[in-house]
Amino acid sequence: MSGIDISKKVLLITLIIFGVLAASFTLTHNMQLSNFLDLEELDTLNNVERVQNAISTQQGYLNYIAQDWACWNDTYSFIEDGNETFIRKNIQNHTLAKLKINVMLFVNNSGSLVYAKSVNIDTSQETLVPEELLRLVEDGTLLTKGENGNISGFVLLDGKPMFISCHSILTTNYTGPVRGTVIFGRYFDDNLLESFKETTRSSLLMYSVDDNLPPDFQAKLNNFSHSPQHTIVEPLNDSRIAGYFELPDISGKPALVIRADFPRELYLYGERTLNNMYLFLLLIGLITMVGVKFALDKLFISRLIGIDNFVTQVRSEKDLSRRLSLKDNDELYRLSREINGMLNEIDLAQQELKAQEREKKVLLDSLNELAIFVSPERNIIWANKVALEFMKIDLQKAVGLCLKNTPDINSPLSDYLQLEQVFTTGNKKSEEFTAKDGKVWFVQAIPVTEEGGKIIGVLEMCRDITERKAAETLLQEKQIAEAANRTKSEFLANVSHELRTPLNSIIGFSDLLYEQVYGELNEKQLKSVGNISKSGKHLLNLINGILDLSKVEAGKMELNYTKFELAGKFNILRNLLSPIADRKNIQVEIDIDSSLSTICADEARFVQIMYNLVDNAIKFSFENGLVKIGARKKGDMVEITVMDTGIGIKPEDQSKLFKPFSQVDSFLSKQFQGTGLGLSLVKQIVKLHGGYIWFKSNPGEGSTFAFAIPIKGNNNSEHGTIGLNSKTQGKR
């Protein structure tokens, strides 16, 4: 009967193991399939980004051409005198066709159209200027304001989308006063869409929001109204997947919805591979379980049954002369041998018990705790060495002594624990108390019973825990301080959010007043409104910095890793800061290692790092200076440097860098505007990327700031370290 029972148990265990393996395989299969879906979505987003980059490149080209024509002495003169020579020499049909421009408009400061031309790019034939475009000129929508004025984006002309770029007319040296606006436009027609298809090797469909949209495009347009500037990815069918994205017009309203679809090769291949692997693993698992069951029955279970029967018979007959037969040199053989040896050594066990009693006494004597064994009459039966030293008495004098009459130990072990309750209830009792001398004790009374359950005594233990309690108090104080710091960070984050909403409103309305949307203002009013906008933006930057710093301190800042081109980001950054650099005639150079193309990082946070470093370099550079941006590959890291030829940092001020709200000195704080948060955030963001930052600087010779982050990204930001060189690290 025993053999049947154990065999059934082995079979049940085998089936359970197989079930667990099957469930694990199924779960792994589903998880891997989900991973392939995620990879497919990521691949689709990357492909859609190539399409978006191609469209951005077209817009950038149009912006470049518009700026080139607008900042030209001949154009500057033409707006004033309208000379025909300029038109004959420069504005021919074939010129516009070669430049891939459909419409060219010149408008003076009063909003009057000086000259307009529209051509067919394919045939170079002149066409009519769109009436709707002229209306946008008349109502001032396409007219720029100020020397740095430019407008770029899309407009819908009777449902036809057009790239548009408007730039203020200046001299070749980019100086004013502004004499008007140059407006260039190119239709986003089927030919241009085909060129994007060839460039990105994708299938593209485009609809204007004014068109009768197909159901899937209409549904995505509704989603874009809740989440603008967001790419929506979803499968079209079993073989193709699509990415939808929206292009707004120059006013920010939805203009175009574009779908880019691609074959689902990655997902389909992964699904087939996983299905084959899943079936293969199930088959291997089934075969393995059957083989294991057969082997266990044959090699072990039958022998275990024999050992069980032998032990049962010896125990019932109390015949210690019997021995197990031995076979096969394995674990069961050794078990049988040990059972035989155990029978031989039973007699020695009783003698060893006495030796063990002595060992227990030695062990108790080695304890640092006070240990006393007390009889039901409260008399001492035994005490360890530490207790005897504490009582200042030897064991012979202590045995038989009533605990209440014991010197120096009555209070810890007798009065406080109330031993009568322990002897009555038979329950262990433990307490902590503070003695008159300030020491904290942990005392414990453990009842000792004989086989019948009768209490024959109580083992009392007493341990000095003064140091441990002090450590616990320090730990609690540390936790309270950390909680207070987290509360502070959360409060700053909440207050920053509450302040940003009214500030955005102040900045928006002041910008509308400055642009004279609600009516003309005199020079003094314009200056005051401009100061409101400038101060609001400065305060908003400070609040955003506080919010980001609070997120880092509260551990709530998350990184969104994406792949992007390094050179493209540097060029965009240079263009973004070019107005600031041009005012000081500072040249910005970019030098990127030829082995570097793309990196994986949080794109927005990377731009935030670079903007702070380059803006600081320009801000603290001398007139006609030079700012160099460099990127080099260092192992699996990318090392980026920003060098300027500016004022540098004094050695006594360098210790203030990288500290929030800290600037190098009060004079520079007034001369160069700043919040003191920029480099502090740069340091924290670099650390979150798993990188490090350093700098070197000499007064009057300029500074070099550098940081390094993993090229392929690092999702475990806890591994990031902050590197220091011998010069210090910091924030201007």
From TrEMBL:
Q: CDD domains of this UniProt entry?
A: HATPase_EvgS-ArcB-TorS-like, HisKA, PAS
Cellular component terms (Gene Ontology): plasma membrane
Question: Which InterPro entries does the record associate with it?
Answer: CHASE4 (IPR007892), HAMP_dom (IPR003660), HATPase_C_sf (IPR036890), HATPase_dom (IPR003594), His_kinase_dom (IPR005467), HisK_dim/P_dom (IPR003661), HisK_dim/P_sf (IPR036097), PAS (IPR000014)
Keyword DNA-binding among record annotations: no
- Show where the HAMP domain sits: 298-351
Q: What is its main location?
A: membrane
Signal peptide (UniProt feature, chain positions): none
Pfam annotation, one family: PAS_4
Q: Can you tell me which residues the record assigns to a coiled coil?
A: 332-366
Q: Which UniProt keywords apply?
A: ATP-binding, Cell membrane, Coiled coil, Kinase, Membrane, Nucleotide-binding, Phosphoprotein, Transferase, Transmembrane, Transmembrane helix, Two-component regulatory system
**A molecular function GO annotation:** ATP binding
Localization recorded for this chain is: Cell membrane
Ranges where the Histidine kinase domain occurs: 494-713
Residue stretches making up the PAC domain: 427-477
Q: Where are the transmembrane segments?
A: 277-296
Q: Which PROSITE patterns match?
A: HAMP (PS50885), HIS_KIN (PS50109), PAC (PS50113)
E.C. designation(s) = 2.7.13.3
Its recorded reaction(s) are: ATP + protein L-histidine = ADP + protein N-phospho-L-histidine
Q: What is this protein called?
A: histidine kinase
Q: Which organism is it from?
A: Methanosarcina barkeri 3
